[in-house]
Amino acid sequence: MKGIAYYKEGEHVHDFLLIKSVTRGTASNGKPFLTIILQDKTGDIESKLWGSTSEDEKNFVIGAIVLAEGDITTFRGRNQFKIKNIRLKEDQEVINKADLVMAAPLSANALDEKVTQYLFEIKNPVIQRLTRALLKKHHQAFFEYPAAVSIHHNFLSGLAYHVCCMLDMAKEVVRHYPEVNSDLLYAGILLHDMGKLKELSGVTATSYTLAGNLLGHISIMIDEIGESARELGIADREEVLLLQHMILSHHENPEWGSPKPPLFKEAEILHILDDMDAKINIMTRAIRKTRPGEFSERIFAMDNRSLYRPTFDLQEEQEIQDLSQGTEKKQN
Amino acid sequence: MKGIAYYKEGEHVHDFLLIKSVTRGTASNGKPFLTIILQDKTGDIESKLWGSTSEDEKNFVIGAIVLAEGDITTFRGRNQFKIKNIRLKEDQEVINKADLVMAAPLSANALDEKVTQYLFEIKNPVIQRLTRALLKKHHQAFFEYPAAVSIHHNFLSGLAYHVCCMLDMAKEVVRHYPEVNSDLLYAGILLHDMGKLKELSGVTATSYTLAGNLLGHISIMIDEIGESARELGIADREEVLLLQHMILSHHENPEWGSPKPPLFKEAEILHILDDMDAKINIMTRAIRKTRPGEFSERIFAMDNRSLYRPTFDLQEEQEIQDLSQGTEKKQN
Amino acid sequence: MKGIAYYKEGEHVHDFLLIKSVTRGTASNGKPFLTIILQDKTGDIESKLWGSTSEDEKNFVIGAIVLAEGDITTFRGRNQFKIKNIRLKEDQEVINKADLVMAAPLSANALDEKVTQYLFEIKNPVIQRLTRALLKKHHQAFFEYPAAVSIHHNFLSGLAYHVCCMLDMAKEVVRHYPEVNSDLLYAGILLHDMGKLKELSGVTATSYTLAGNLLGHISIMIDEIGESARELGIADREEVLLLQHMILSHHENPEWGSPKPPLFKEAEILHILDDMDAKINIMTRAIRKTRPGEFSERIFAMDNRSLYRPTFDLQEEQEIQDLSQGTEKKQN
Amino acid sequence: MKGIAYYKEGEHVHDFLLIKSVTRGTASNGKPFLTIILQDKTGDIESKLWGSTSEDEKNFVIGAIVLAEGDITTFRGRNQFKIKNIRLKEDQEVINKADLVMAAPLSANALDEKVTQYLFEIKNPVIQRLTRALLKKHHQAFFEYPAAVSIHHNFLSGLAYHVCCMLDMAKEVVRHYPEVNSDLLYAGILLHDMGKLKELSGVTATSYTLAGNLLGHISIMIDEIGESARELGIADREEVLLLQHMILSHHENPEWGSPKPPLFKEAEILHILDDMDAKINIMTRAIRKTRPGEFSERIFAMDNRSLYRPTFDLQEEQEIQDLSQGTEKKQN
Amino acid sequence: MKGIAYYKEGEHVHDFLLIKSVTRGTASNGKPFLTIILQDKTGDIESKLWGSTSEDEKNFVIGAIVLAEGDITTFRGRNQFKIKNIRLKEDQEVINKADLVMAAPLSANALDEKVTQYLFEIKNPVIQRLTRALLKKHHQAFFEYPAAVSIHHNFLSGLAYHVCCMLDMAKEVVRHYPEVNSDLLYAGILLHDMGKLKELSGVTATSYTLAGNLLGHISIMIDEIGESARELGIADREEVLLLQHMILSHHENPEWGSPKPPLFKEAEILHILDDMDAKINIMTRAIRKTRPGEFSERIFAMDNRSLYRPTFDLQEEQEIQDLSQGTEKKQN
Amino acid sequence: MKGIAYYKEGEHVHDFLLIKSVTRGTASNGKPFLTIILQDKTGDIESKLWGSTSEDEKNFVIGAIVLAEGDITTFRGRNQFKIKNIRLKEDQEVINKADLVMAAPLSANALDEKVTQYLFEIKNPVIQRLTRALLKKHHQAFFEYPAAVSIHHNFLSGLAYHVCCMLDMAKEVVRHYPEVNSDLLYAGILLHDMGKLKELSGVTATSYTLAGNLLGHISIMIDEIGESARELGIADREEVLLLQHMILSHHENPEWGSPKPPLFKEAEILHILDDMDAKINIMTRAIRKTRPGEFSERIFAMDNRSLYRPTFDLQEEQEIQDLSQGTEKKQN
C-alpha cells in the first residue's frame, strides 16, 4: 500500500481507508451529496460522494472502514479523491487497523518510560509530587491524545510525543545554561498542555468540548493544578503558583491566549521550546509533501507562508516515505 | 477642614493628614530626601521632605498620621505640597480617622444589605448556592477592599460599592431587555472582581501580591469558583462553567486580560456594565477637580484624554464638595 | 403562518412573502438565474430561481409580494429556500402587509410620544430648541427609518426604537449618577443617528446615498446642527458645539468613524449606551435563532463570535416566537 | 545679527528677541523661575530665568521684545540660552519687528496674487463660486495665519504659502496626468486647511480654540462649506459634496483624523501633495540646522527619525542662511 | 476592433486575442476544463473552456494567439467571456501583434532618450558613473519590463515609463524646493526598481523568480549596487551607501518591505514620488472602466477602496478609449 | 575586588575602573559636570562628577583607567556611584586589564576551535567554501566583537560566544529532528550576525557606523555574501541564495528588520535559536542581579517585563559571582 498522502494527480486508488469525517450537502441540482474525508496512517484526502442515498448516509459514518476505488484529481492545488466505488469493509476482510491511523513515531509505552525517567529527575519534592499526581490522574488519556485538533502533532499519542521532544531539548538547554532550573522546566513541559485532555473531546474525530470553548485548556489547567495541590496539602507553596503561572503564560502573548507573559526564565524557555517543537513538526510535515525546488502549500499556522524545499534536499520519494514511517524511531 | 483635594496653588495648609506612601531618594546635592504622599478623605497630594534625617525615615512611614504645614505649589499642572513643618500626631490630639480615609458613599453595612437583597433574587439554585458560598468565604474583605490600586473606586469599600452600582444598572437592563438572564448577570457581577481580594495585598497601602503578579485576579477566581463548586458537589453543572467563563471574559479583550471574549449575552453585558461604571467613576472624579470652561488633567485610564467641563456645569466649588461628601448617598 | 425565520431544514413552505432584493447571475451551464431574498416580519431567507426567464426578471422585483412554495435546505449552516413554484400575489388575494415587514415592537406613534416626553425633560433652552427644531424638520422619516442597513435594528422604526431604548437606559444612568447632565445626554441620544436619514436611501431596500458614501452620517449631522443653530440664531452658543462634538465622537474611535474621542462625560456615556443597546439587540436576535445548548451562527458585528445559548435558557420554540411578536411590547 | 538659530554651543549672544512663550516653575530649592522661549525670524531657543521676581513675571510676557545677553549651552542635544542679563526694549531703541518674526518667503500680497490666478483657472462655475466665496469670507486671516501650531509652516502666512506650494505642484501633476480634474484639485487645495482659521486662536502665540479641540479643522470646514453653499443656493450640487469629501478625507486615514479615506482620484492627490509639501518643509528646516556628515535632532512629525545630511551637501553656513532668507523667493 | 476591456455584458465578441495564462481544473461533474485569460492591448478577460480535450491543452498555451467567438457575461461584477468557438490563429491570417499587448504610451526608444537626458543632468561623478554603469548592464530589459506583476504599470515598458513619469515630477520638485539634491533624487529614481529585472521572470507571463521570492527586488539591488561600485573602484564612497539606502528605504515602512525608513530628504521624496505615480496610474485605469456617477470595482492596491467617478467627469466612452490609446502621448 | 555589579546601596567603593563612556552636561546652577560610566568585568555603573574642570574633561576620556573612591547610592532603583575622589591610574600601578573588561566565559581561542570544528562538519562544498571564506576575511574581528551595543552579549567576544552557544543547541536540534539540514543551519548561524562587524564601530565604546545606520547588519551581509560568492565563482548556486535569505529573514518579522520571513525550515530554526540564546543571556544576567523572592528591574529587550526570581533559587550571592566568573566555562 502506497499511502494516501503519496498519490499524485491522475493515479488510481483501490485501498482500505478510515472515514475521518462526513458532511452532508445539497448540490446545485438539488441532490444530496456527502463530503467524506478518508485517512490512512500517512495522511488524509477529501472526496465527494455525489447523489448519495440514505443508505450511504447510514453506512459511511465517522470511524467506518471502507474499500474505496477511484482517481486522484486536484482542486486549488490540493489532491481530491474522485470515488468510483465505495463500500464498507466486510467482516471477513482482515486489515491492520494501525495502518489506518496516524500515530506518533514512538509507542505509548516508550513515551511513558521516557516521561517516568524525566519525572525521576525532578528533585524539588513539591514539584515532583504535584506533577506525579496530575500525570497519574490523567494517565491513559495523556498517552493517547493528539496535541491539537488540526495544527501540530494531530495524531495518536501526539500530545505525549510533543512533550517528550520538548523534554529532550530542555535537557540540552539545562546542560548549556546551568542557571536554568530543570525541575520547573521539566514539570512545566509535562503539564503545559494537559488541559487539552478536557478541552478536546477525545482521541478520534476530535472537537472542542463546552469547557474547551468557554475556558480553554490554559484556564482548565490552572483550576486542575489548584485542585491537586489542595488534595496534596501543598496549595500554599510558591512552587504551585509558579507552575500555574508557567501554564498561564506559555502562549507568551495575550492574543495567543496567555493573559500574562512569562515572568521568570523557565516560563519563557517553556514557551520557546513549545513553539520550536510545534513549528518544526508543522514544517517537516509540509516539506515531506513538497517536491525539491518547489514551494509547499500555504501553512496557516505559520502566518500562511509557503515554504521552499531546496533542490539539493532529499531527492527520492521513497526515502521520504521510509522516513515518515520508520526513521524517526531511530532518533533515540 | 477644607480637604486636601480642594486647595489651590499659593494656599496655606495646616492639617492632620495620613501618610499613603513614602519613597527615599538622593538629591543632586547628594542629600537624602523623602517623597511622601499625604491623604485625607478628599484625595491625596505629593510632597518632598528635603534633607530628611534618619529620625524622619523612622517616623514618617506608611499609615502614620502627621500634622503638616506648608504651601501649595504646582508642578506640570499637578498640585504639590511644599512642607514647612511636619510632625507626628501626638497621642492627646484627637482626630476622626474616617476624615483621613477615602471611602465609598455607602457604608459597608448598607452595601451588605443591598448585596443580600440581590442574592435573594437569584432563582437558579446552583448559581445561588455557589455565589452565596463565595460571598460567605470572603465576607469581610469583600466589603472593605478598594476596587483597584489606583484606577477606579480606589477607596474603602470601593469594590463592594462598584458591585452595587453595577447591580442597580443591571436591574434596569433586565427590566428593558426581558430575554437577559438575571441570575447569571447578578451572579457574574457579584463575583467578577472577587479575585482582587487575593490579587491585592490589603485595604490600605495596597500593592500586588505574588499571586496577583503571576496569575492576576481573573485566573485566581477561576480556581476559586472551581474549588467552591467541588466543595458544594456541583462541579459538573453547566452553570459553574458559565460563571467561570463570565469571570474569564469580563475584560472583553486579550490585551486587557481576557483570554476569551464574552461568548454569551450575559457575559457581554457584564463587561459593558463593568466598563461603564468604572468610566463614570473615573470621569466624575476628574471633573470634580476641574473648573467649568477648562479641561481636566490627562486621565491615563481613559486613553490619556483631558475631559472638558462645560461652562454651564455646576458652578460652585462648595456644591462640588457637598456632592462628593453627601449627595451620592441620596441616590437610594 | 409560522414565519420564515422559524422553518427548519426539510420543512415545506407555502407562504406569501415580500421580495427584499434580487440579483441576476449566470450559472456554469450558461443559463441565467435569480438570487431572491424573501422576507416576512420574522426575518428573511435566500432562494435561487434557476433558469429564470425575462418574464421572471420583469415580475420579481424589489418590493413585489409573491406566493412561493418549496423546501428548506441548508448551505454552510444557513437555511436556503429551494423554490418549486413562485408567482405574484393576485389582486384578489388579501394579505396584511404588516405581516411581511419587520418592525419595531412599539408603533411609530408610541415612539413619538416617548420622544416628546423626553424632549420636555430637557431644561436648557438652547439644547431644547435645537433638538426640537431638528426633530420637527425630520419628523416623519425619524419615526420610520431603520437604524442600519443590515447590522442592528434594521427594521421599520428601528432608528426611533433604538433611540427610545437608549433614552430609558439614560434615565437610569442619570438617576444613579447625579452629576451627569441629562439635558446633554438626552439631546445627544435623540440626535446621534439622525444623519442616517440622509445617509440611507429610504425605509425599504435601503442602500447608501452618495452623501452617505462620501461623508457618512456623522459629518452630515455636524452640518445639519450648524444649519439649524444658525437658523435659530444660537450658532455661537457652547451648547451647539457640545452637541456637534457628541455626534462627532459617538463612535468613540477613529477606526469606527469618530475623528475625536468623547471629550466630556455625557459624550462618553452616549457612546456606551449606543454600543450597549446595539449589541443587546444583535445578540438577542442571534440567540432567538439558536437552540439551547448550541452556538449561534457567527455574528459579524460582534467580532465574528458565535454565541452560546445555555441549556437552561428558554426551551420552547413557541415561546420564542411569542416573544418576538408580542412580549417586547409588554416591557412598558 | 547672526540669527538665534545659528549660534553654536559656547557662543555669546547679545540681541533683541521676541518672547514666544513663558511658563512659571518652582526649582528644587523652592525658588520660582521662568522658562522663556525667545525668537527671531530665524528660529527660537529655550532659556531659564532662575530666581525670577514678580517684577520679571509682569514684564516678560508673550509678545514682549527684550534685549538679552548670555551664552549658548546645550542640553540633550538642543541649544539652550543661559541668560545673564535681560531687560525690556526701551522706547527709544528702534528695531525692525520683521526681524523677530518667522515669515513665509513670499509676502501676503504675492501669495494673494498667486491664489487669485489659480482661482481664475477654475472653470466649473459651482466650484469657482464656492471657493471664491469662502476665500472672500476669510480673506485677511487666510493670508496671515500659520499652517500649524508647531509642526510645519508654523510662521506668518505659513498657511497661504503651504497652499501656494501645493498649487504649483498640482499644476505639474495636471500637466503630466491629463485625466486629473484641475478644478477639483485646485479648489480642494485652496480650502483644505481653511478650517484652521477657526481651529487655531490666532497668528501669534497660537493655541487651539474650544471648537478646535472639540471638532477639529476638518469638521469645522464641512460645516463652513455647507453654510456657504446654502447661501449661494448651490447646496444640492454634487460638486459641493465632492469638495466636502476632499476636506474630510485629506488626512487619508482615521488615525490621522479623516473618517473617510479619499474616494476619488483628486481627493487622493490632494492628500499626497499636502503630505509631500509638509514633509519637505519639515525636512528642509531640520537639515538647515544640521552639519554635513551628521544626523539631525529627532523629528517628531517624521516618526521621530533623525535625518542624515550628506557630507557633500552644501558646506557653507553662510549659504544656508542666505538661502533661508532670500533664495526661496527666486523660485518664481 | 473594439478592445476586450470595453465590451459590456451581453455583447458578442469575435476577435483575435493572446493567451495570457491557462489553468486546468476539474468540474464538479468530473470533466476537465481550462480557465484561460485572454488579452489584447486594452486589457484582459477570464474565460472557461468547459469539457476541454487533451488537444485543447496542447494548443491553448501561454503566448498563443487565438480567434475566439462568444458572449460577455458577468460574475460578481466582473466581465467573463463565455466562449462558443475558439481556435488557433492560422499562419495565413495576418494580425498586428502590437494590438494584443498592453504597452506604455511612450515607445522604448522615446523612454531611452528621456532617461539619457536625465542621466546627463547628474553632476556628481560618483553618482553619474554608478547609475550609468547599472543602466548599461541592464539596458535592454530595463526598457522592456513591466513595473509589476499585476498592480501598477503592468504592461510592456511599464518600468521605464514609471521611471520617466517620476523623473518629470522630480524635476518640478527640484525646481520648487532648491535644497533638494537632484543628483541623488534622479539616480535614486532610475535605480529604485531595477532589482525587478531579477525579481520577475520576464516580460510576458511574468512570475517571481526564486531570488525574487527569497530576497525581493530591494535586497537584490543592494547587492547589485555593491557589485558595480566595486567594479568601478568607488565602493568606499558615501554616495554609494546613500544610493543603497535610497533603494532599501523606498517602500518607507517595514511592513511594505523596507527594513529602514528613509533617512535623508531625497530618500523620502523618492518614496513619495514612487507612491504618487503608482497610485495615479492605478486610479486612472480603474476610473477609465467606470461610468460617471458610479463607483469603480474594489482596488486591492488602494486598501480595497471603490473610487467614485463624478457625474461631470468625461462623458463619452469613445473619448475614454481614445485617451487610453493616444492622448497620453501628447503629454510631452 | 568585589566587582562593581555586586555593591549594594550605602557600601563604599575604592577600586580601579575603566571609563566606558563620558558625557558633558550643564547643571541647573550653570556649572559643568561629567556623567561617567565606569566598568569592570562584572558590569558597569553610572556616576556624576559635579563641577568638573577642563582638566577633568581632558583626563577622563573613554578607555582611561581610573582609581575611584566613593559611595553607592540608588536612583529609580538603579545603583549610582557617588564619587568622592577620582584620579587616573599612575604608570607604576599595576593592574590586570582583563579585570576591567567584560568578556565571554570562553576565550577567543577556545571559541575559534569550536567554530573550526563545526565548519568541518559542513559537507556541502558550496556552503563550506563560502562560510570558510567569510570567516577568514573577518577572522580577528569575529572573535573579538560584542554581539550588540547594549542588549545581549555586549561583552568581549560576545558575538563569537553567542554563535557557539547557538551551534551547540543546533547540534541537538539536528540530532532530534533528522530532516533538518545541518549544513545550512550551521552556516546560517556562523554568518547571521557577521554584518555587525561593519555595523558597529569596534570592540570598545561601540557605536553605529554610517553603514550601520543607513543599511543595518542584515543588508550589509547580503552584499558581503554576494561579493564572496562572486570571488569564489559560485554566485549562481542556489546555496548562496539560501544563505542570503537566512541572513535576510533571521529577525523573522518586518518590524524587527527582516523584509522577508523565513521561507524554509532551517531559516526558521536559525531565527528561533538566535532568539532563544539572546533571551536566555538577557534573562540570566538580569536574574543574577536580583535577590530571590524579588522582581528584577524592567528589561527593555523583553517587552519591558520585570522577571521574578523564585525564593528557592540559588541563595548565596557568593555562588552567583562564582558562577558568572567561572562556572560557565565548565559547561563544555
UniProtKB/TrEMBL annotation, chains A, B, C, D, E, F:
InterPro entries (UniProt xref): HD/PDEase_dom, HD_domain, NA-bd_OB-fold, NA-bd_OB_tRNA, YhaM_exoribonuc/phosphodiest
Domain HD residues, every copy: 160-278
GO molecular function: exonuclease activity; nucleic acid binding
Pfam families: HD, tRNA_anti-codon
The keyword Lyase is annotated on this UniProt entry: no
One record GO biological process: rRNA 3'-end processing
Cross-referenced PANTHER family: 3'-5' EXORIBONUCLEASE YHAM (PTHR37294)
Protein's name in the database: 3'-5' exoribonuclease YhaM
Native species: Sporolactobacillus shoreae
Organism taxonomic ancestry: Bacteria, Bacillati, Bacillota, Bacilli, Bacillales
